[in-house]
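#onboarding

Welcome to the new folks! Below is a worked example of what a typical request in this channel looks like: someone posts a single protein sequence, and someone else replies with the predicted structure as tokens. Don't worry about understanding the tokens yet, we'll cover that in week two.

Example request:
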Amino acid sequence: MSMWEPFTEPARRSIVLAQEFAERAGSAEIASEHLLAGILAEGSEPLARLLIERGVTSQRVAAAIGEAPRTQPERETEFSAEGKKMIECAFEIARAYNHHYLSSSHLLAAVARLPESRAYGLLVAFGGRPEELQAALRSDSPAPVSVATMRRTYDLGALLEESIDRDPVAQLRRWIDGASAAGQLEPNAMSISTAGADGRPSARMVLLRGLDARGLVFYTSYFSRKGRQLAENPYAAALFYWERLERQVRIEGSIETISEEESEAYFATRPRGHRLGAWASEQSEIVENRDLLDARLRDYDERFADEEVPRPHSWGGYLLRPARFEFWQGRKNRMHDRLEFVRERNAWSLHRLQP
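Example response:
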């Protein structure tokens, strides 16, 4: 599953049910018809309800592929080539509607767009009308799930005092490594929140590019909005969130610029296009249109055609020196684990916070 982007909770339930259908039918792979049966058995999405209203019941599909599912799967089941194709098609549909997460509505739409699949044949055989689904998809995107009802249960792990590293920087590195191993997209992505002299906060995502005993290092334009705010108020808060592991880390502390030499060394490791972008973009400033940006990039590409792209003096690194860490692990019933480190006289004190 790590090869795919995140799924919504209804889509995850659909896939768990599909696995149960596959196992019950004696299949070693989850095919598209198992996914169709799982979607209809899950049944909470608008397109699933639409199909059920037209007579495509999960029981009838189950009868076509095997027997009804059990409550819990007994073993892991792989996706068949057809099942993978269906999920890839579902992601294309999700992206077309600017949806970051894959829902069971997108999976159902994929069935309607893959007439060669067995799942498509089952739709037709049991009363589903793919052409009507296609018309609905053309007229509007799949209806979103109400944000008020979106929720998941956190039950992947626990965070106890005896298991945490007493060096919060080492613990942060451990969790980043764990997120990477779990297939998390950009496990070093973090939100950085800043505030200028007016005290109004601003947040954005950046990439962690250095982590050592000093703290956390990231890079940006000194004249960007965050750069200007940090010049006025040299404090920031960082937030990591790894949904695959149900973990987050909050860090708060002071900010300082790193040395020119350290910024130079990192800039030299960046791809050429990224280095050109640092010259072409006056970060956070208004620009008339995209064409102007593209033209500026081409101009700098020509300017530095026969040499290494140097670091602009307006671009460099910041060091967040932590004064506080909070490690959060999701738990059932919203009784989450929260362990806080606070810097006191060059040492870290550890406390448990209520969820």
